[in-house]
Design a protein that fits this description.
By secondary structure, this protein is an alpha+beta fold. Helix content is 60%, strand content 8%. The protein contains 18 helices and ten strands. Strands 8-9-5-10 form a four-stranded antiparallel sheet.
Length: 605
């Protein structure tokens, strides 16, 4: 207990942006003594003797509100709950006075309009401080696990930045190696890499200018631009180098190097320019179809990646020819390059002969493969399990699994109920409805998804009522009279405790209902949210305004919106690209046929 108390105090004093901290040290202990309601900390009087410690332990185990919130069922695990300030720039006084206006002044904007929420950097600062403090107290007989949404957000962010750097370097190294094997020239490596790196830097600068931050979906953008952007450069350089070789074979050695390069550039652009432009435009159009996505990170990816592809196209058509004009190039002599090209040409001719000479067989085989791919594609299921992205040994994953297993859940759902009238929470029928919902929802067990704990205003009211009736367990229930409920809440507020602020608004019109559950596949959250709304509407009345919020609700809504946006975006992309292919080819039938080899790899993947 003494070590827990030191840890509690250290966290309270050193954690930045702290709004509240709760543990067994300051857990609310509501009791009655000589007709008076006393609301104090559980360890208000420090237990110096063994008998006092036994008494405190008995009180903690007897309090149903502590179970799976502050202590585990077997009383071997305890938690410290840290609540960060949602709006670090504001103060409690500002929040209270925000609801009052000068009658002589016009109405202003909403109180929260000028407040800035806790930023990602501030969240990381909180997590780092807490992690450092925890490391100083951790020992074999006092193990500390860090879990919760702020920790998860920080870990995923750090993992994203690390992976993005790693895969950018891997992509760059792989591309450079393949370019050298393809062209066997230093210029064939440096020039395409220069183009894609400039394109990437320009795109990142555009993101910064537009104020678009990196998010989980946008982390693939750098590697994607490297892979896609190099294609146009390779297309142009392959034709350019081949043209230089043909000029050498045709007696072009008499030409000045600058003239030979000029003719090669003109020929390469004339031969491949249209294909490069159409490839880039169709790619950009497909990506831009995600711009209308309901989920901001997906929309940002569509806009930024499309802009990056267009920037890469401009550099390829404008900068690459200019670089080829000024960079000294070694004119290849001998049969080495010619033999390499001949071997490749023979391979392509052989493939073409097989495809044209056995067209029916090739088509039937392709159709069979496509049907198998469609069958497999229909088995693909949507899933979103961020913790499974992390290694099993990752401390955050270990901590989250530990809390899920021992505390019956590491995340929460918040249901906000609006009664529609001031002091509407005093109604006995409403409070009994909350009590019924608490028992009903706590019994939900759907295997992977289960409810570990519920907490509502009804639980606080039953705690108060028991304390005011000589702490008898038979009075751990909802009072039957409206006036009695109002009086008990008033006595609780006058005791000096501000805990009711966590459950009700100042007018006793709205209340929150907390549901504790584990982190599971986000695809399970949306139907669970809908089920919750139906249960609340059925029990409390359809006229109540019910809002489901919290991280779980946010993930459920985000995944649902992502799936719908993806369906719409893919459909738009297919239609736009098909139209562009028909426009390019000039024939509707051939344009439609050309989409088959475009769509088949998607289905097979």
């Amino acid at each position: 207990l003494e070590k827990l108390e030191r840890l509690h105090q250290t966290l309270r004093e050193q954690t930045p942006y702290l709004d509240d901290i709760t543990s067994l040290i300051n857990a609310r202990n509501t009791r009655g003594a000589e007709g008076e309601l006393i609301v104090e900390d559980l360890l208000e009087n420090w237990p110096d003797t063994e008998a006092a410690r036994v008494e405190v332990k008995a009180r903690a185990l007897a309090n149903p509100l502590y179970r799976n919130m502050l202590i585990s069922d077997d009383a071997t695990i305890t938690t410290i709950v840290i609540k960060t300030d949602a709006y670090p720039g504001s103060t409690k006084v500002e929040d209270v006075l925000a609801g009052f206006e000068d009658p002589g002044q016009p109405e202003t904007a909403e109180p929260s309009a000028g407040r800035v929420p806790l930023s990602d950097e501030q969240n990381s600062e909180v997590v780092n401080v807490v992690r450092d403090i925890a490391a100083g107290f951790h020992s074999e007989d006092f193990r500390i696990y860090l879990a919760g949404s702020p920790v998860v957000a920080d870990v995923l962010k750090r993992s994203m930045m690390t992976n993005m750097k790693r895969f950018m370097l891997l992509s760059l190294a792989t591309i450079s190696l393949l370019l050298y094997l393809l062209f066997r020239r230093v210029s064939g490596v440096l020039l395409p890499v220069a183009i894609v790196m400039l394109s990437l830097l320009s795109t990142l600068g555009l993101m910064a200018l537009a104020g678009v931050p990196f998010k989980l979906p946008t982390q693939i953008m750098p590697s994607f631009l490297l892979a896609v952007g190099v294609g146009a450069s390779v297309h142009l350089l392959a034709v350019f180098y081949r043209r230089l070789q043909l000029q050498q074979q045709e007696g072009g050695s008499r030409l000045e190097p600058s003239e030979a390069k000029r003719r090669g550039i003109v020929y390469a652009l004339g031969h491949s320019g249209l294909a490069i432009v159409m490839t880039s435009l169709t790619t950009a159009a497909g990506l831009a179809s995600f711009a209308g996505a309901e989920v901001a990170p997906v929309s940002d990816l569509g806009i930024v990646a499309a802009a990056g592809v267009l920037i890469s196209l401009i550099f390829t058509l404008v900068l690459l020819p200019a670089l080829l004009s000024v960079v000294p190039l070694k004119m290849e002599h001998g049969d080495g390059a010619r033999k390499r090209h001949l071997r490749f040409d023979r391979l392509m001719v052989a493939i073409a002969d097989i495809a044209t000479g056995n067209s029916r067989t090739v088509l039937l085989a392709s159709l069979l493969v496509l049907l198998v791919g469609i069958g497999g594609a229909l088995q693909v299921k949507f899933s979103h399990k961020p913790f499974e992205w992390l290694p099993r040994s990752d401390p955050t994953r270990v901590a989250t699994d530990f809390v899920n297993d021992h505390m019956r859940g590491a995340s929460t759902v918040e249901v906000v109920v609006d009664t529609g009238q001031e002091n509407g929470l005093y109604q006995p029928a409403f409070m009994q409805g909350l009590e019924h919902l608490g028992a009903e929802i706590a019994a939900i067990d759907q295997g992977e998804l289960y409810v570990g704990k519920t907490l509502s205003l009804a639980d606080v009211l039953k705690e108060i009522n028991q304390a005011l009736n000589e702490n008898r367990s038979s009075h751990y229930r909802i009072p039957d009279q409206r006036d009695l409920i109002a009086q008990e809440f008033l006595l609780f507020e006058n005791s000096g405790s501000d805990d009711l602020e966590d459950f009700v608004d100042s007018q006793f019109r709205q209340t929150r209902f907390t549901i504790k559950m584990p982190w599971v596949d986000s695809m399970l959250y949306r139907p669970f949210m809908e089920d919750l709304k139906q249960r609340f509407a059925h029990t409390l009345g359809a006229d109540r305004e019910i809002s489901v919020t919290g991280m779980v609700a946010l993930l459920g809504r985000t995944m649902s919106a992502t799936i719908e946006s993806m369906k719409q975006s893919y459909l738009i992309a297919i239609l736009v690209i098909t139209f562009m292919m028909i426009l390019l080819i000039g024939d509707i039938r051939i344009g439609l046929v050309s989409m088959i080899p475009n769509l088949t790899p998607i289905v097979l993947t």
